[in-house]
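Listing S7. Sequence submitted for prediction.
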Amino acid sequence: MSQQIFAQIPKRVDGATKHEYVINNFKTESGVTLPQAHIIYGTYGHLNAAHDNVVLLPSHYMANYHGYEWLIGPGKALDTTKLFLVATELFGNGRSSSPSNTPEPFHGPRFPIMTIRDNVAAVHQLLTHELKITHLRALIGFSMGAQQAFQWAVSYPTFADRIVATSGTAKTYPHGVVRLEGQIAALTADDAFQNGDYKTPPKRGFEAFAVVWAGWLYSQEWWRKELWRANAPAGTTFEQVLDNYRTHFIPGADANDLILQMRTWEHHDVGATPGFGGDVEKALRSIKVPFLYMPSETDLYFPLGDARYEAAFMPNVLFKPIPSLWGHTAGAASNPADAKFLNENIEEFLGLNPSNK
C-alpha cells in the first residue's frame, strides 16, 4: 500500500531521480490503443558501462517509485554504490497514465483496463528502448509488484538473473476478486460517484472504501493484540485508528484511479499469458530463474495457502514465508522485525553484496 497508517515509515532515501517515458500508440490487451502511455519511474545509483548492474522494482497499489526504500541504502539489501535501481510506477496511480490525467476520449471511467501484462510490456520497452538495458541482475516486487514479478518470469523468462516476490501471487483467485469487488462497491455506492463522471470527489464512497480495505490489510491477531500501538502516538484509541483510516487513507487519490488499479489486480493471471491457454500451473512450471517467494503468513489479500499451491509447480523456487502478524504489509517491511527478515533473506538470495558478509 502507498499509505500504511501507524506502520513503520522509512526515512526517504536521498539520491532518487524522477524520470518520465512516453510510448506512442500503446496497444493494450483490451484492444484499446492509447495515443500516449506515460510511465513515471525513479532511479537510484548509476548505470555501469556494461549495463549489467540493474535491479528493477515495479510498484504496488497506488504507490510511487519511493515504495521500496525499506530495501535501499547502507545496511540494507540494495547498495546504490554498486547497483542501478529502476523503480517504475503502475498505470493508474495518478502519475503514470491514469484515468485522472489522460485526456478524452479516455478520461475518467473511459480509460481502458490495464493488465499486469500491459504494465510489464510497457516497462520492458522502457528498459530496452530508453535505457538500453537487456538484462537485469534482479527483479523484486511487493504486492502488485509481486504480480509483475511473476509476469516477468513467465513473459521474459531469461531477462533477470533472480526474482523475488513478497506478499503477492501469480494469479488473483476468485476470493481475491470478491474482496476487490466489495471495495469497488463501497466506493461507487456514493451518489456523488455518478458512474465515474463525478464533479466533486465521492467523499462518502472514499470513506467506505477505506474502512473495508482496513479490515483486510492486517491480520485478525494484529488487531486483537493492538499492534497498531507500536507506531501510534501515545494515548491513541482504537476509535481514532479506525477514523484515521476512514479519513486519511491514500490521501489525494482519485476514485477512478483506485478502481482502475483494482481492475488491473483482478485480471492478473500468468496462465492467460499467450501460449499457456489459461493454465496457471503450466505457466508456473515455465519459470526458469531462481525465484525467492516470500508470502506473509497472515496475508488476507494473498493467502499463504494460495502461495503454497503455486510454489509446488515452480521448478527453482525458494519458498520462505514471512513469520509476521502484520498481514499483507509484512511484505513491505511495515515493522522492524519484518524489515530485518526481508533484507537479510533477499540479500542472501541475491548475493549482490558479498563484501558485507
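Caption to Listing S7: primary sequence and predicted C-alpha cells for the chain studied. The two ends are 31 Å apart (CA to CA). The chain has a mean pLDDT of 94.
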